[in-house]
Amino acid sequence: MDRTLLSITFLLLVTPTTLTPVISARSSSSCNNYPHFTEKVTWTTTQCAFCSPLESKANQTLWLNYNGTLTNGTLFDSSYTAEKPWPLGDPFNFTLGSGQVIQGFDAGLYDMCPGEKRKLVIPPKYGYGEKGVPGAIPPNATLTFNVELTGIGAIQNRTFFH
């Protein structure tokens, strides 16, 4: 998957009375609403973000808000709470590629830009498998996560995107 960095080009349109800057931007090649399929996850970008040199890579700390649901729509986990509802939430953080989260969740978050939102659909094998999570996730459940990357790195600035 080839990502194109944000490209900002300032064009000066000169007329006898004005000097007008025009900004054009190219977003990443994955920034479309078509599903992206891998063995571990199917993901779709639901909100694009202008990419900067800061894209999510292995061994980086990611900060994100998310909702996790079962295929029937039952919410089983969320970073949004009564105290911190949408759009603020209480961003979750982990190190990408470190094995701290289920494999499908990890696989669906590479090459994201802060502010980007994705919908991840994770098959049971790369979620919680045959055992599930008693009381929360049944065995062999396909999981759906709606995620928003709010920051990359040790310090997360969630006010930038809200």
TrEMBL record:
Residues 59-153 form the PPIase FKBP-type domain. Its EC number is 5.2.1.8. Keywords: Isomerase, Rotamase, Signal. It holds the Pfam family FKBP_C. Residues 1-25 form the signal peptide. GO terms for cellular component: endoplasmic reticulum. It catalyses: [protein]-peptidylproline (omega=180) = [protein]-peptidylproline (omega=0). One of its GO terms (molecular function) is peptidyl-prolyl cis-trans isomerase activity. PANTHER family: PEPTIDYLPROLYL ISOMERASE (PTHR45779). This is peptidylprolyl isomerase. It comes from Tothia fuscella.
